[in-house]
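Q: Give me the 3D complex with uracil.
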Amino acid sequence: MSNTPADAAQPSAAREVLTAAEIDRALTRIAHEIVETTKGGQDLVLLGIPSRGVHLAARLAEKLEAITGRPAAEILGSLDVTLYRDDLRHSATRTPAPTLVPPAGVDAMTVVLVDDVLYSGRTIRAALDALNDLGRPGIVRLAVLVDRGHRELPIRADHVGKNLPTSKNESVRVELTESDGADRVLITDRAETKGSAL
Ligand SMILES: O=P(O)(O)OC[C@H]1O[C@H](OP(=O)(O)OP(=O)(O)O)[C@H](O)[C@@H]1O
Ligand SMILES: O=c1cc[nH]c(=O)[nH]1
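A: Here is the predicted complex, encoded as structure tokens.
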């Protein structure tokens, strides 16, 4: 049987678990939840965690601007966690990405960390350390597009696009237009993604 173009675009074991429309709906819902929990988006800062968390934070900031009228540029930033990871000695060197803090800073603000996938929780632990070096937020919350379980630390998300029960033998791959040309979330067998960045 010959391969179709769709077969060629993804490994054979890949399953699409979120479509572009579902990703957009999940982000819209999270934006509304953030508005509700911050009394209309007051004193709010969104910090995206590189790499795909930055794109998701930018999309959330646009949605928040549409809801609250507050310019996205006033609340949007990014938080690189590379040098705060606990696996620096074990994994290949990564190039640090920029940390950008919006003009009002983080002191006393409600900071929402934004990432694509929550798994062991180690990236978010590193993010909390990185944030500590920037100032003292009033509240820190976490928004993720996908929570796939298997936490190794006592960390949970406040805003979740989709809870995806997974096996440890699987990988969740979030693809976004900004970095991957299209929006979708895939689950693949780990063997299928060997050699990728996951
Ligand atoms: O909860 P954890 O076990 O820390 O896993 C979640 C992290 O893993 C992925 O990042 P990755 O390090 O693969 O880099 P990427 O963002 O560049 O894909 C994902 O983007 C999360 O940041
Ligand atoms: O499956 C996983 C685990 C960690 N990070 C990801 O992006 N996917």
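A quick observation: The first helix runs from residue 5 to 9.
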